[in-house]
Amino acid sequence: MQQQPQPQPQPPAVGIFSYPMHSRSYSGAGIGHGIADHRYRPSQPLPPRRRTLLGYDNYADLMRVQAAAARYANAHYYDGDGGNSTNYNGNGGSDIRMQRGYWWLPGRALADVLRGEVVSMARTDRGCRYLKEKLDEGWTEVRAVILEAVKSDLEGIAQNKCGRILLQKMIMSCCVDEITAFLVALTEDPLSLIAMCIHQEGTLVIEKLIKKLKTNMQQSLLVDALLPHVIALATNENGKHVINACIKWFRYQHGMDFANLIACKSVELAKDKYGCCILQKCLERYGYWHESICRKLIVHAKLLADHPYGNYALQFIINMNMIPGVVAQILYQMKDQIVELSMDKHGSHVIESCIRNSEREDLDMIVNNLTTSRKFLELLQDPIGNYVIQTVIKETRIVKEISYYVLKRRIMSEHSSLESHPFGQIVLASLEQTD
Question: What is the pTM of this model?
Answer without folding.
Answer: 0.71
